[in-house]
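Question: Send over one sample?
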Amino acid sequence: MATISLQRLRKTYGKVAAIEDLSLEIPDGEFLVLLGPSGCGKTTTLRAIAGLETLDTGRIMIGSRDVTALPPGKRGIAMVFQSYAVFPHMRVYDNIVFGLRMRGVGAEEQRRRAVETAELLQITPLLERYPAQLSGGQRQRVAVARAMVMRPDVLLMDEPLSNLDALLRLHMRAELKRLHRELRSTTVYVTHDQVEALSLGDRIALMKDGEIIQCDTPAAIYDRPATRFAGSFIGSPPMNFLPGTLRRQNGSLMVEAEGAGIPLAGSAAPATDGSVLLGIRPEHIEALRTQTAGSVAARVVVLEPIGPQNLLTVQVGSELLKVTAPADFQADAGQEVWLRLDPARIRLMDPVSGEALSA
């Protein structure tokens, strides 16, 4: 069993805490994504699992083994780096089997594993080439193959797609997802790209300032962010936020925002009235030409065509909101529109702490 247990990890550099009291349980076979902005501690956490960082305090378990003090070579892990790190003077085949040779694995077993892994990653025709003869995506597959051929208990990936162009990243995301589905190795993947995180992860651990802000499935963390930070970091465009006041009127719940009374589903509301921060995704706002009950007045700042739909930036009071609209919805800068917010998709948060007010 390649479960990973991180227990109260702490790592500092001088007076700066890179990770602070971090605990996380990763089940066997899970694809977990560590997501967050630069400097949040995600790579330090990955390197600690790999044994490349010495912790101040805390314990790391892989399966039933305490690996906290073990060197990287004895942890049963393999790592794929952002820079590929393939040897330019070696053929693809020799790059793939390099680790096996260092461990004294026989030549016949080396070839069997290399051919099997190359077929899985669809790089069999490349085995006799040198890295200089490969594209970026092909080099990345070689790096993944070199890690997978070791049959690791745990596979660690540190932003492996960040050096690829947009089309290659799209292709490699699908390849990595297929690979994980077939091999079911426990995988920890670091990225700052929330699209990668949403598309790849079984779960996402969102980090900020060395701590895990929220750890949940991609759907849950997208639909029910636990904090304003989670809502603003996950999603492209991110979640909109609008100050409002929660009221109960004739037994119904509503939020008053910019002069409009927006009805709420009972399950979405906290127990007490007062000031709230209303969060809603751009795709859950409908732009209208005319005013309807509960709609919010807005003024168009800019309209951006993005293929199958348009992206509107609108001003509501002092706030700028993003709204997705059909491709045939046209509006000029300065034009007044009305926004209908889907009551079932509104997320209420504390205006001071930024924490969600409902589950």
